[in-house]
Write a structure and sequence with these properties.
Blueprint (H helix, E strand, L loop, with lengths): L5 H4 L1 H56 L4 H24 L6 H18 L1 H16 L7 E4 L4 E8 L3 E5 L5 E5 H5 L3 E3 L5 E10 L5 H11 L11 E7 L4 E10 L3 H19 L14
Antiparallel strand pairs: 1-2, 1-5, 2-3, 3-4, 6-8, 7-8
Helix pairs in contact: 2-3, 4-5, 7-8
């Protein structure tokens, strides 16, 4: 049998790898201990950073409240500050594990750009939220009507991307900020007073002055403001005279007073013998 050199059998490489593996096993406890210590340090620093971020946010909110910034703007600014501070905290801590923070920032930037290109609606919603909070076409608590979709209700919350609107039938609608910032918005809560417009039909046999007196008497009730009351002939219909009724109420009482006044007008008409005609069609047989 021929004598084969040890080098050709690869025993030297095998022995070298064995020695490297043995060295790794020997240093493993020390590395594990160092990793554990770094993990504990990072965890402790994260808790301290978490506490400091909460403290800074609390100070910021109180400062904004003293300057009479709207609650929606305060929440928006608080969310932006919270995200930025946590990103800074995490990037500061990953360096303890030997990770290059600059590489992570570049990765986050490229990821944000990719997401922005893939979901352009999210960027437009964010920009719309900023416009709403800066220009203030409405604020939290206002009753608004969005013309394009005919959505109306009370603004409950303005977030980074969506605005929550509570409807009269107690449903919650989340509308994209881009829609609200690019649509015609009717803000019914912009002023302390709001005018109620009613159309009341009476028969052609009814004296207009009598009907006007009955309606003005109804408008003397509590809750109807004393100025700019008006009762007039709005138009002449096929089977009735249409009286226009205008009066002002406090904005929060608008819907309630509109219903109450209309009901009381009907009650007073019944009591005084004023008839509200229904549409009639006369057919003549030849």
């Amino acid at each position: 049998m021929e004598n084969i050199p040890i080098e050709e059998l690869g025993l030297d490489d095998l022995a070298q790898k064995k020695n490297m593996f043995q060295d790794y096993l020997n240093t493993l406890p020390e590395k594990a201990l160092g990793l554990g210590i770094r993990t504990l340090i990072v965890l402790a620093l994260f808790l301290v950073g978490y506490w400091l971020i909460r403290l800074l946010r609390r100070i910021l909110r109180k400062s904004l409240e003293r300057t009479k910034v709207s609650p929606a703007s305060i929440r928006f600014i608080d969310n932006c500050v919270r995200i930025v501070l946590y990103i800074v905290l995490i990037l500061s801590l990953v360096e303890y594990f030997g990770v290059d923070a600059a590489s992570i920032v570049a990765l986050i930037g490229s990821g944000a750009l990719t997401i922005g290109l893939a979901f352009p609606g999210s960027l437009s919603n964010f920009a719309g939220g900023v416009l709403i909070l800066v220009c203030k076409p409405f604020v939290t608590g206002d009753y608004i009507l969005e013309k394009s979709t005919q959505t109306e209700g009370t603004v409950e919350e303005i977030n980074l991307f969506y605005t929550k609107i509570r409807t009269m039938d107690n449903r919650m609608i989340s509308m994209p900020n881009s829609v609200l910032s690019n649509s015609t918005i009717v803000d019914a809560s912009a002023f302390e007073e709001r005018r109620v417009d009613l159309i009341v039909p009476v028969s052609y046999g009814t004296e207009v002055e009598k009907a006007r007196g009955v309606i003005l008497k109804v408008l003397d009730r509590d809750g109807v403001l004393s100025h700019d009351r008006n009762v007039f002939v709005d138009s002449l219909d096929n089977s009735s005279v249409l009286l226009g009724v205008q009066f002002f109420v406090s904005t929060p009482d608008y819907l309630m007073m509109k219903r109450l006044v209309l009901e009381e007008i009907k009650t007073e008409f019944d009591r005084t013998g004023i008839t509200i005609p229904f549409e009639q069609i006369d057919v003549h047989m030849v």
